[in-house]
Design brief:
The chain is an all-alpha fold. The chain has one domain. The chain is about 65% helix and about 0% strand. It contains 13 helices and 2 strands. Strands 1-2 form a two-stranded antiparallel ribbon.
Length: about 350
């Protein structure tokens, strides 16, 4: 229900956003130093991420309405949960930071929005606030959204960093993934399509954890192997809604894009992915699942470090997709191949997740 509602709302609200932002002359400023082909995109409305943010939040409400009729609702909280507060809060608030960045770009008619420090400060404030909520607000059984341990496929028992350290790790994960998606959002549909794959993976992970949940006493009594997470059905529902909302948006965002998601969309998507990683106790696994975002971020760092230390560039231009544009690849060719990389990364991540379950039960 959540996925269906998110898709329909996003599909039909995005054209409205196109008309509104076009009327407001909220066109995407294009940097002159980028590939020349991008100059043709000047004036394309931006800030389209507002559409799939609204769709995801409304879909969450619809999902809870449907949840009331589930026969197994006794092990799934019917009302809003702290998990949803943290995940959707990250989604909306990091989107707000991006919205401010986009608004400044549109008003100034150039690509200079918030400064790098200002953007990082906004992400850090949002991450700290929701990190504290994730670590310090427990459910009735004492379970929190986040953990004091660093996790891979589940918590690593000997990597206990304490609550303060965990909040710091939470902020780092949210900021890193948020900026990773932001760097990836440079070609029509690239970040949107990759996000669909990652959210789909986390919806599967959340539902699998729900079916093998330690809070389900009937299952836990019969099986020693279960997942110590909080509200996994909520996690699955939100991830599915976000994936479907991105699919609806992709209809209008694919090449040639009629609207861009802007920083309001990319920062929101990255923050939600980071939040899902922490909530499912798969923080380190998210490096693999979100492999495309990590690859683009790492190559960007390599370029910056190389240029500042040696004066030489490793790539023609960063982010990485622009390197291939300058090498003569078409935009659609790059997007599809990068989607393949994202899909392979997701498949490997899910394979590792499931193989751990098989090994523990073998």
């Amino acid at each position: 229900m959540a996925a269906a509602v998110a898709f329909v709302i996003s599909l039909f609200i995005t054209p409205v956003a196109i008309r509104v932002f076009t009327a407001l002359k909220a066109g995407q400023p294009i940097r002159s130093i980028g590939p020349a082909t991008h100059l043709t995109k000047t004036g394309t409305p931006t800030m389209g991420g507002v559409a799939f943010i609204i769709a995801t939040v409304l879909a969450y409400v619809a999902g809870h309405i449907a949840l009331i009729s589930l026969p197994e609702r006794q092990i799934a909280q019917e009302g809003p949960t702290m998990t949803a507060f943290v995940l959707l809060g990250l989604f909306v608030c990091c989107g707000a930071v991006g919205f401010l960045d986009d608004l400044l770009k549109v008003r100034r008619r150039n690509s200079d929005g918030l400064s790098a420090k200002g953007k990082l400060l906004g992400q850090a404030v949002v991450g700290t606030g929701f990190g504290i909520a994730a670590l310090y607000v427990a459910s009735t059984n004492g379970q929190t959204v986040a953990s004091e341990h660093i996790s891979f496929i589940r918590d690593i028992s000997w990597l206990d960093v304490g609550k303060v350290g965990s909040v710091m790790m939470f902020v780092f994960v949210i900021t890193a993934m948020s900026n990773g998606v932001n760097l990836t959002d440079g070609l029509d549909g690239l970040a949107t399509g990759a996000s669909v794959l990652v959210f789909g993976a986390y919806s599967l992970i959340g539902f699998w954890q729900y079916r093998h949940w330690c809070a389900d006493t009937a299952y836990a009594r019969a099986n020693e192997y279960c997942y110590e997470v909080r509200d996994p059905l909520e996690i699955s529902m939100i991830a599915a809604a976000a994936a479907a909302a991105c699919v609806g948006f992709l209809w209008w965002n694919t090449s040639p894009a009629r609207i861009f998601m802007g920083d309001v969309g990319s920062l929101a998507l990255g923050a939600l992915i980071g939040g899902l990683a922490v909530a499912t106790r798969t923080t380190l696994l998210s490096i693999i699942i979100g492999g495309l975002f990590v690859l683009i971020t790492v190559t960007w760092v390599i370029q910056i470090v190389s240029f500042r230390t040696t004066g030489r560039r490793v790539f023609r231009m960063v982010p990485l997709h622009h390197h291939f544009e300058l090498a003569g690849w078409s935009e659609v060719n790059i997007v599809v191949r990068f989607w393949i990389i994202a899909g392979v990364s997701v498949a490997v991540g899910l394979g590792l997740f499931y193989s751990e379950f098989l090994a523990a039960n073998g």
